[in-house]
Amino acid sequence: IEALIYISNNLKNKLSLTAIAQHVGVTPETLCRKFAQFSSMSPNEYINYMRVCLAADDLRDGMTIAEAAMNNGFGSISNFNRSFKKAHPPVTGYWTVHATIAAPYPASPA
């Protein structure tokens, strides 16, 4: 739990497995093993997931993708895009349905 608190308090900073393990007082291997017992994610997957969640909030608040990525500890937009797609995989047919709804309907014959 101490690792989760440390991660939460430092999400916007550069985080490494070694730094987290040192803060908690274990080896990186032990941290990964303990994290796997607690979560279905690795520490890095958890960090990226939490950063994506914060960035999604920023996007809803009107930030650009670049601003949201940099504001939440992503080193680049491409890294953010990869993490976002992994955290939010596309739902089959989602864009087709929404594109159809948004498309103008043909004029009805008179």
Question: Shape, please?
Answer: elongated
How much helix is in the residues?
55-70%
Order of H and E elements: HHHHHHH
The termini sit apart by 68 Å
The total beta strand count reads 0
Calculate the mean pLDDT score and round it: 82
Radius of gyration of CA atoms, rounded to a whole number: 19 Å
Structure class: mainly alpha
Please report which band the strand proportion falls in: under 5%, 5-15%, 15-25%, 25-35%, 35-45% or over 45%. under 5%
> Main sheet, how many strands, which sense, barrel?
none
- Runs in which pLDDT lies below 50 for 5 or more consecutive residues are 94-110
Total number of helical segments? 7
What can you see in these coordinates?
The protein is an all-alpha fold and 110 residues long. It is built from 7 helices and no strands. α1 crosses α2 (17-24), α2 (17-24) crosses α3 (28-38) and α4 (43-60) crosses α5 (65-71).
Structure summary:
The chain is mainly alpha-helical and 110 residues long. 65% of the residues lie in helices and 0% in strands. It has helices at 2-9, 17-24, 28-38, 43-60, 65-71, 77-87, 94-102.
